[in-house]
Amino acid sequence: MSKPLDTDIDQALALVVDANPSSRRTLVNMLREFGVKRIEQAVRPQDARGMLEIRPFDIVLCDYHFPGEGMSGQELMDDLRQSGILPLHTVVVMISGEADYGHVAEAAEVALDAYLLKPHTAEALRVRLTQARERKRALADVFALIADKQFQQAAELAQARADERGIAWLQAARIAADLWLRLGRPADSARLLEAVVANGALPWARLGLARAQTEAGSVFQARRTLEGLIGDQPGYTDAYDVMGRVQFEQGDTAAAIATLRQASKLTPNSVARLVKLGLLQFYFGDVKEAAIALMQAVKLGIASKVFDLQGLTLLATIQFDRGDARGLALALNMLRRSRAQAPQSARLRRFEAVVSIFLALLERRVVEAVAEVRGLLAEIDAPDFEFEAACNLMMVLARLDSSELHLAELPEKVAQLGARFAVSRTTCDLLCATVRARPELMDAVRDEFERINGIAEQAVARTVAGEPAAAASILLSAAERSLNAKLMDLAMQTVRRHGSAIPQADALLARLQHLHDTYRSYGAQVRIARIDDARSLQAAARPDTVVPGGDAAAAGTVAP
Prior knowledge:
Layout: E1 13-17, H1 21-34, E2 38-42, H2 45-54, E3 59-63, H3 73-82, E4 91-96, H4 101-108, E5 114-117, H5 122-138, H6 140-147, H7 151-164, H8 169-182, H9 186-200, H10 203-215, H11 219-232, H12 237-249, H13 253-266, H14 271-284, H15 287-301, H16 309-321, H17 325-341, H18 346-362, H19 366-377, H20 387-400, H21 410-421, H22 425-434, H23 439-464, H24 468-482, H25 485-497, H26 505-523
Parallel strand pairs: 1-2, 1-3, 3-4, 4-5
Helix pairs in contact: 2-3, 6-7, 7-8, 8-9, 8-10, 9-10, 10-11, 10-12, 11-12, 12-13, 13-14, 14-15, 15-16, 16-17, 16-18, 17-18, 18-19, 18-20, 20-21, 20-22, 21-23, 22-23, 23-24, 23-25, 24-25, 25-26
């Protein structure tokens, strides 16, 4: 045996993913020569995905090309990264032939630690692994803080490592930038990434800068950054993901759909991107196209953690509209199997309730359907009732009258949903899209949005007039009634900025903070309009018990 790769290589767990038996055997032998004692193998990317979802690996060697499998190594790693399944400490090396070089070079921007062209020597692989593992060790303390969910401390430490310009400083900068975004500090993220871009204009740094600009509200600037990046790197798929979000937030839904369609075309077997495309098409595009994308996602990844079960819920809605009882029953069975593995998941329970209602309506089990609907209506003001759940409930309510079921409380409940979740033009438009067949329900949501805006404008006017205490009182009262995140945020800003002129400001702020902590993290979520690349930062701490499509796989995964 040759010299071990490093002092703890004998503790490493490696996975070799290659369809060719000879190539796979060669890679396994090389790893053994390097001192790796525990090596597992996979022939198909789907098998590798299942293995990587079950437990973390320290080293992954993955071929790019898998003839006849309908999925490349790049698509496999891309899906795993988007769903937060690849831990930070894992070293990923992609191996490809010359014909795939361009694809692999682009993939290296996204999820890889290194790539090799065939034919390669053992020494070339040794060098790549040695360098990558050295970088991982240099950031081990940052990874540990992230695993403990100490994101502030992790961001500060990663920032310090980036500032030092030592080993792994670029990786530290990338992690710090993601963490600053997660912590709601896009300006800090942008400053760090601007320094990286000035040092070499790396594509991932330009993409991160666009994300930071988006989070800071500078969507026009972000769009220019992305247009330049896509022009220079037309195969950089993640740039299309973020561009889709920017276009969506600008109200250009047709362009957002076209952009996500291009991203899916570049990675046609990416389950996560198929779900994103299907969701946006469901709300704002062609429902037939949505069904095709969602069905393909189900076919490729229903048993995987990369599949977000919100996609299955929307597909079930399409099946209800088509009168497809058999398809609905299959969808319900899939949801029940997933929920059986996570019985405490409120998100999965609500998915199951929605599909159960649709199936009961088709089978004319009216009493059962009404009971399920009223159960969901009773949860509207629950702390964990989020925007996604509101959209799904609105879809159900919009279809009740078409089934000749009339709930007397329907106008009141729709108004309550609008008051809580119409926090912006984007959320208002999404809620309206769920009930587009019912103009009167759309009007009710828009009325609530305008009413919320009117309260905010009234409060601002009082503040400008030198009456911040009155403004804070107006906002707090309205926020407690509606649970609207926009009003909560504006109230907190008012008290913090004008606390010296507001009696008992500390007590008022504590009351607002409790309201904010209890409700805002749920009420402000807009899954279809959000991208959170910091998801991958949570993978190091993910529990082994996470189920396919469950809660831990959901955060942001349907965002364009």
